[in-house]
Each structure stands twice: as C-alpha cells, then as structure tokens.
Amino acid sequence: FSGPFTDVVTTNLKLRNPSDRKVCFKVKTTAPRRYCVRPNSGIIDPGSSVIVSVMLQPFDYDPNEKSKHKFMVQTTYAPPNISDMEAVWKEAKPDELMDSKLRCVFEMPNENDKLNDIDASKPAPVLNTSKQDGPMPKAHSVSLNDTETRKLVEECKRLQAEIMKLTDENRHLRDEGVRLRKVAHSDKSGSPTALALRDNGSNSLPSLLVVIAAIFIGFFLGKFIL
Questions:
Q1: CATH number corresponding to 9-103
Q2: Which helix (H) or strand (E) is 13 found in, with range?
Q3: Which portions of the chain are predicted below pLDDT 70?
Q4: Boundaries of each MSP domain copy (predicted)?
C-alpha cells in the first residue's frame, strides 16, 4: 500500500486460475476492520483472472512501526451445480484446500512510487500443480466496475464517520454520568436536587440506545469489510 494514508488507499490483488476446472476462492485478513475487500469470495472460470480490490482505511502512519497485517487467499475446486457457497467451504476437506498467504507492506510515495498492485501468481500459485489435470489456457482479466468501487469507498467512509460520531456521543454520555454521580453524592438522597438528578439520569437512558447502535454498526462494518 502506497501512502499517504490520510485517505482510503486501494490496492489490487490479482487471482488467476490456470486449471481447466472452476475454482472457488475466499480472501481473509488478520485485520478485518482495517480493510474493505471486494469481492472477498467468488468463482473463477478455467483460465480466467479476477481482480480483488483491497481498500485500506485511513490511519496514522508510523514509519518505525512494522506492519503485522496479513492476507490469506483460500481456494478449492468448485463442485458441480453450486447453490450454496458457505456449504462448499464447510464441507471441503483439508486436503482439498490451498492457502496463499501475503504480508501487507506500507510505503510512502518517496520510498516506492510504483507499489500499487499485488500479483498473487508471483508469490504462490492459486492451485497446487499436483492437482492440475489439464493444460493451462491463456488468462484474461475481469476487473471491478469503477462506479462500484467508488460506491464501496464512499460507503466505507460513511460508516467510519458514523462510528466516530457515536464514539464521541458515548464519551460525552460517560462524562455526564460521572458528573451526575458526583453531584448526587454531594446532596442528600431525599433532597429535591437529588430527586431531580435521578430524573435526569432516567431521562438519559434513551441516549444509551445510541451506544447500542454503535455496537451494531461496528458488527455490520466487520461483516461489510470481510
């Protein structure tokens, strides 16, 4: 990934199927909340290629910090008449799967201006050559629509802004709760002031729904990213 990292940075991951059978693929990462991957799974026709867009979310870049983020591309031959992709991965046997692992590298433009694409065919093949039973046709590229990619980037930005907003509201509610508890302890429990504070505390309960909404949005974002 080539910086600066103050905005979403997109890198392409190219997957190629050199065999004469359809192949199912799935992309996993050790940091699902930091990346949007589209498509993160699918089927590659014989001799075809698929471009997977990996979108890194903005963060504070530290050149002295070594990246520990990794990606894994998991593949298996597609069974005939596929109807449920999840069932394919659940029923696949370990000896029918192949994993290709990639490590993320962060570079600033002045260090490497040409670090844009990751070619999965160079570090490791998609399929084990021992399982190939036919000639390798020539590959052709299938890329994502530019409009779809922009929509995904905008959706990632919108979700990130929602989370930041809800986080600020949660922090405000927590500080307000601490302040109310301090005031309550300084007054008598039966005084009108203490009663008024308890009423205010009860009225703030609906605001806690915002915090719960933040949890659900975080869960949705994890699902959306990978």
A1: 2.60.40.10
A2: strand 9-16
A3: 110-146, 186-211, 213-214, 216-226
A4: 1-107
